[in-house]
Specification:
By secondary structure, this protein is an all-alpha fold. It has one domain (about 15-465). It is about 75% helix and about 0% strand. It is built from 23 helices and no strands. The chain has helices spanning about 20-40, 55-70, 75-85, 90-110, 115-125, 130-145, 150-165, 170-185, 190-200, 205-235, 245-260, 265-285, 290-300, 305-320, 325-335, 340-355, 360-380, 380-395, 405-415, 415-420, 425-440, 445-455, 455-465. The two termini are about 40 Å apart.
Length: about 475
């Protein structure tokens, strides 16, 4: 039966079939089309146009289209193909981590840990360095929380207050927050993007982190230098004092340190939840009811991402079976004949999907199966692929004016999202360092990289599971 094909390997026997990509085209027309219409042509008052059409509904219709294709396969065979895609070990692990990350995020928010951590750092940073300080705080908060949207939501009102009190340029302050939020989203061990990029490629989170930091840290240092120069030009200013609870900030710092030490992500999130239960209870911020209801709300907030993951896994499995992935690979082979070209192909694919979906996690889930085949086809190091998926999606998500990050920042600050773009130093600098990393390290293959670390993709994953 055709569905017996190995889902994780190359599909060299499949014949390229551009028509197999129609489900994704249908999704893009529905989601991107309605987004453009309701955001720019007929704006909805008080709403965000790109969130009128549910991404779940759009992918659901695309899945129906995928089922209609290829009449040589029976309905039961198509269901089996979808089930095999959904049942992949990495997809299952990813779904479990999404649930725990949601619980951690929910209880941390309810306890007030984010505000305490931000205020603690604001009181430490000198007033004259408030603007670069906002960037650093956003970097740390997003890395600890694992969410750029949550970071922007919490810190943008603080940036507005600081700008008004000290007379700073508001777009610069908000741009610093957005840049720092994308830095943390990209590097956090518990962010949706990290979970999706590593689990779909079968690599350890710490391996992807060390690959990411080579690009993210230089971009952050240059951004910090630019913001420091701007701060010096503004001169000294009084930004005020902020209340905080050190006990409520501790869980985020513990989680951050444990994650960077390479502790298994389930253990990290479990300890983080327990610490917030203790800290929130001792501070009087939470009781038994609010603690567990907030965890429930946090996991509920992950349901859409989990459903999208299941739908995309199903659509991808059918497109692969019908020759859609081979059609994309054929195009990339025609445009490129090297590992470097394969990397640029992965980056281009990820960027285009993020522009179309306005969601970096969804972009990774959509692009990941194809990226995995490109990785195997061109002998690219899997951790480099995971890094490109995560980093490129965060770059585009941080600069598109209709993405949730800029729309929320614009709504909370009163500055139009399009006017924030010139002050988004970090995402643009990160794009430069991504290009440089591909140009410089583009000839290094998976075997060579594995020899350097003494491990391959499968071994990395096994090591992480054993920790």
């Amino acid at each position: 039966m055709k569905s017996n094909e190995n889902n994780s390997g190359l599909n060299g026997a499949k014949k390229a079939n551009v028509r197999a990509l129609i489900p994704i085209l249908v999704f893009l027309l529905l989601y991107l089309g309605t987004g453009i219409y309701y955001e720019y042509i007929k704006p909805v008052e008080g709403g965000m146009g790109f969130y009128i059409m549910s991404v779940v509904v759009a992918f659901g219709i695309a899945l129906v289209v995928a089922f209609i294709q290829n009449p040589t396969l029976s309905f039961d065979e198509k269901v089996h193909i979808c089930a095999r895609g959904i049942g992949d070990d990495n997809i299952t692990i990813m779904l479990f981590i999404f649930l725990m990350a949601g619980a951690f995020s929910g209880i941390g928010k309810e306890a007030g840990g984010v505000e305490s951590t931000a205020n603690l750092l604001l009181n430490i940073i000198p007033d004259s360095m408030a603007i670069p300080g906002l960037f650093l705080i956003a970097c740390l908060i997003a890395t600890a929380m694992g969410t750029s949207v949550g970071t922007i939501t919490v810190l943008t009102p603080i940036a507005v207050s600081i700008a008004e009190t000290a007379g700073f340029n508001l777009p610069v302050c908000v741009g610093a927050i957005v840049g720092g939020a994308m830095f943390g989203d990209n590097l956090s061990f518990i962010s949706d993007t990290t979970i999706a990029s590593t689990k779909t490629q079968g690599v350890a989170m710490k391996a992807k982190f060390y690959e990411n930091i080579k690009m993210a840290l230089p971009a952050a240092i240059v951004t910090l230098a630019i913001l420091t120069f701007i701060a010096v030009q503004n001169g000294a200013a009084d930004v005020g004092d902020y209340d905080f609870s050190f006990g409520l900030a501790i869980p985020y710092f513990v989680v951050l340190v444990m994650a960077m030490l390479g502790v298994n992500v389930f253990i990290v999130l479990g300890i983080g939840i327990i610490l917030f239960l203790i800290a929130g209870g001792m501070s009087g911020q939470m009781d038994f009811i609010t603690a567990f209801s907030s965890m429930g709300s946090g996991t509920s907030g992950m349901f859409e991402t989990m459903i999208v993951t299941i739908l995309v896994a199903s659509i991808s499995a059918l497109m692969r079976e019908n020759g859609g992935f081979e059609a994309i690979l054929k195009f990339i082979r025609r445009m490129s004949h090297s590992k470097r070209g394969g990397m640029f192909g992965i980056a281009f694919l990820t960027g285009i999907v993020d522009i179309a979906t306005a969601n970096n996690t969804v972009a990774i889930v959509v692009a990941a199966p194809i990226a995995k085949q490109i990785t195997e086809e061109y002998g690219i190091d899997p951790k480099k692929t995971a890094s490109l998926l995560d980093t490129v999606s965060c770059i585009f998500q941080g600069i598109i004016p209709y993405g949730a990050q800029l729309l929320i920042a614009a709504s909370l600050s009163g500055v139009a999202s399009i006017k924030l773009i010139p002050w988004l130093f970090y995402p643009f600098l990160l794009a430069v360092f991504v290009i440089l990393s591909v140009l410089i390290g583009g000839n290094k293959g998976a075997a060579e990289a594995a020899a350097e670390t003494g491990t391959g993709a499968v071994t990395d994953e096994a090591a992480e599971s054993a920790e």
